[in-house]
């Protein structure tokens, strides 16, 4: 996106209930971060320093972006979604300006969450290349302006916590680091049920069995979403075939167990 458009807020459409599994993380985050955004005056009354942000790390497709969007909705905050690599501009100085603009925009629509996806692109250990050093310094500078930061919150996400510069992780910056893991069997069941909520599912589909099955071992949330979409695509295909064939019963064709079996073969 052009730098002029960089940093504009939006209201995401991911609700808390759209995030399956991750129960412990959700509880932890509800207690700390969301309460903080919703009731900063209570934190002030008890002289507890506001939490400015946190960093989520973990494997691809496990719900970090989903979680950040759901936090915005749940806390009633505006949301600015920044993809780290897109911000790194080859023209010297442009990326720092973009970081500044993002924070200026965030301050105009408080409370506001700035979500830095793939934040490692901006904050990898210093000394590697001068472009990212400048961006990191700009980011640290913005996070340090604690009065101005009031009402502005920062969530970072990365798959590469090992390359993140520790300076960004100090208290008052992205002090907390939370791990978003691959879902276990029980969480896979919960994610499948979450993903299925708005879909027509046949009575013979047993998500408890599918989620716990060997075939879904090591599946991420994104893999489970792909499984769900693949099974739905088979149902759609069959429905359209039935519709084009006058002799066929054109009742609704929900997504049944055999479609999930077929979908599992292809994923
Ligand atoms: P990356 O590290 O690649 O940026 P991520 O951890 O941010 O990935 P998301 O973008 O949040 O992952 O997830 C990708 C998709 O996978 C989501 O849009 C959703 O369809 C599905 N998904 C992942 N985790 C969950 C979950 N816990 N509950 C429901 N759906 C999920």
TrEMBL record:
Cell location: Cytoplasm
TM annotation in the entry: none
Top-level taxon: Eukaryota
Name this polypeptide is given: ATP-dependent zinc metalloprotease FtsH 3
Family: Belongs to the AAA ATPase family.
Signal peptide: none
Species assigned in the record: Zostera marina
Residues covered by the AAA+ ATPase domain: 50-184
């Amino acid at each position: 996106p052009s730098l002029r458009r960089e940093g504009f807020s939006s209201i995401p459409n991911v609700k808390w209930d759209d995030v399956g599994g991750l129960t412990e993380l959700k509880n932890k985050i509800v207690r700390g971060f969301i309460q903080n955004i919703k009731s900063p005056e209570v934190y002030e009354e008890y002289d507890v320093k506001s939490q400015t942000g946190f960093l989520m790390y973990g494997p691809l497709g496990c719900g970090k972006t989903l979680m950040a969007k759901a936090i915005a909705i749940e806390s009633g905050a505006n949301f600015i979604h920044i993809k780290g690599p897109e911000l790194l501009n080859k023209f010297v100085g442009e990326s720092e300006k973009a970081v500044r603009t993002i924070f200026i925009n965030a301050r105009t629509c408080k409370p506001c969450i700035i979500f830095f996806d793939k934040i490692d692109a901006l904050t990898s250990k210093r000394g590697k290349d001068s472009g990212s050093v400048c961006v990191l310094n700009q980011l640290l500078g913005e996070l340090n302006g604690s009065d101005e930061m009031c009402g502005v919150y920062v969530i970072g996400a990365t798959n590469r916590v090992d390359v993140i510069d520790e300076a960004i992780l100090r208290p008052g910056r992205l002090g907390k680091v939370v791990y978003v893991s691959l879902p276990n069997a029980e969480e896979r069941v919960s994610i499948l049920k979450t993903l299925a909520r708005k879909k027509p599912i046949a009575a013979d589909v047993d998500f408890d069995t599918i989620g716990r099955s060997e075939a879904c071992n090591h599946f991420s949330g994104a893999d489970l979403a792909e499984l769900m979409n693949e099974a739905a695509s088979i149902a759609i295909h069959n429905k359209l075939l039935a519709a084009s064939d006058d002799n066929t019963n054109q009742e609704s064709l929900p997504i049944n167990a055999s479609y999930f079996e077929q979908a599992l073969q292809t994923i």
